[in-house]
Write a structure and sequence with these properties.
Pfam families: Response_reg, Trans_reg_C
Number of strands: 12
Order of helices and strands: EHEHEHEHEHHEEEEEHHHEE
Radius of gyration: 18 Å
CATH class of the largest domain: Alpha Beta
InterPro entries: CheY-like_superfamily (IPR011006), CpxR-like_REC (IPR058124), OmpR/PhoB-type_DNA-bd (IPR001867), Sig_transdc_resp-reg_C-effctor (IPR016032), Sig_transdc_resp-reg_receiver (IPR001789), WalR-like (IPR039420), WH-like_DNA-bd_sf (IPR036388)
CATH architecture of the largest domain: 3-Layer(aba) Sandwich
Helix content: 25-40%
Largest sheet: 5 strands, parallel
CATH topology of the largest domain: Rossmann fold
Domain Response regulatory: 3-115
CATH superfamily of the largest domain: Response regulator
Number of helices: 9
Main location: cytoplasm
Protein name: Response regulator
Structural class: alpha/beta
Number of domains: 2
Shape: globular
């Protein structure tokens, strides 16, 4: 069963979340500050619920240090209405955010959506209609290996989060097609696009920075204002 690590200094909330997640058959660990959370992270953790405001080490600094070593999916828990917290968290590599207070149903939906993305298997590729080679998915100089969540461009490995990997995979199997934010949010993030939700924009921005430009200096992912995004077919 998936192992979730909660890093939050609100003991009442963490006790409630632990009870809810255990009831849904998740294994749950808890740390009440960022420093403690970083010490218990290991390969057995499948997802981290990370609060922003904490003593000793806040959520942003915890996430920054976490991303130096781990690609474990992170769901940020932010104060309601604090858009800047969400943007900064996404820039630092969070997979998604959830404003407090939130419902148990919404939390579980976000968790399951993130876990589905991070646990993509080679079997899923075999059953899909995507252009799959014996070793994975290939498009021009991009190679993706979903079973290992590894991506290469021009022979160089890309340091992607699970969400960025899923986003790139979606672009690769729809090259030259305009993908709206609504479609990307639903198909990649597993949620309907809400008003003022910038998660898709931030993930695309992060992915664009990690993909090398074409030899002519043009970015591989093009923004079509008011329409969406497109993986440029080739330059």
């Amino acid at each position: 069963m998936p192992h979730i690590l909660i890093i939050d200094d609100d003991m009442e909330l963490t006790d409630l979340l632990k009870e809810v997640l255990a009831f849904e058959n998740f294994t749950v660990s808890v740390a009440h500050d960022g420093e403690a959370g970083l010490t218990v992270v290991d390969d057995g953790v499948d997802l981290i619920l990370l609060d922003v405001m904490m003593p000793k080490l806040n959520g942003f600094e915890t996430l920054k240090q976490l991303r130096e070593q781990w690609a474990i999916p992170v769901l940020m828990l932010t104060a309601k209405g604090e858009e800047i917290d969400r943007v900064v968290g996404l820039e630092l590599g969070a997979d998604d955010y959830l404003p407090k207070p939130f419902s148990e149903r919404e939390l579980l939906a976000r968790i399951r959506a993130i876990l589905r993305r991070s646990q993509t298997s080679a079997q899923n590729n075999k059953e899909s209609q995507e252009p799959v080679s014996n070793n994975g998915i290939e498009y021009l100089d991009i190679q993706l290996y979903p079973g290992k969540l590894e991506a290469y461009c021009g022979g160089q490995i890309l340091d992607l989060t699970s969400t960025e990997f899923a986003l790139l995979q979606h672009f690769v199997v729809h090259p030259g097609q305009v993908l709206t934010k609504e479609v990307l949010s639903l198909d990649v993030l597993g949620k309907r696009l809400a008003a003022f939700d910038r998660a898709v924009d931030m993930h695309v921005s992060n992915l664009r920075k990690k993909l090398p430009d074409w030899p002519n200096g043009k970015a591989r992912i093009k923004t079509l204002r008011g329409r969406g995004y497109m993986l440029v077919v080739g330059e």
